[in-house]
Design a protein that fits this description.
This protein has about 150 residues and is of the alpha+beta class. The protein has one domain. The protein has helices at about 40-50, 125-140; strands at about 5-10, 15-25, 30-40, 60-70, 70-85, 95-100, 115-120, 145-150. Strand 1 and strand 2 form a beta hairpin.
Length: about 150
């Protein structure tokens, strides 16, 4: 059996912007990463999309952050954190896909960037519970939100 889960914490030093730190594991694989986000934007986009049932193919939940391309706020130059969730099979199982990467500040150091991808399956009730917990984390009412995956 392998345990799978995603843990999200939020740290802020101002009212709206803060760092979301993710720890994710699936079986023997684990990774940790973080990026800065506007918490209101996360609540109005990612959390709203997470709560849809069934997940519509044209509006899947995705959270991504890192260094954005200059002049193009919709295109990442360097992704530090990405969480996406999509339908996996006809039984309603979902696929949680998490990418994390270290920050690289200087172009010659790009070869030193570390990255990891971790995937696991989850069910709608677990995603809904995670969305509720994550909103509480963003509001400072809870320390950590946990999305539990399907144990195999």
């Amino acid at each position: 059996m392998s345990a799978a889960e995603l843990q999200a914490v939020y740290w802020t030093d101002e009212e709206y912007t803060g760092q979301i730190r993710i720890t994710v594991k699936s079986g023997q694989f684990s990774a940790e990463g973080a990026a800065w986000f506007d918490r209101i934007h996360v609540k109005e986009t990612f959390l709203v999309a997470l709560r849809k049932f069934p997940l519509p193919a044209n509006d899947l939940p995705i959270l991504e952050g890192g260094f954005w391309r200059s002049g193009n706020p919709k295109s990442l130059d360097q992704c530090h954190l990405r969480i996406s969730i999509k339908p996996y099979d006809s039984r309603g199982t979902l696929l949680v896909h998490v990418d994390v990467s270290s920050e690289v500040w200087k172009t010659p150091d790009v070869d030193l960037q570390n990255s990891a991808t971790v995937r696991f399956r989850a069910e709608y009730p677990a995603v809904e519970a995670f969305a509720q917990e994550f909103e509480q984390v963003l509001d400072g009412k809870r320390d950590v939100a946990i999305l539990k995956g399907i144990v195999e």
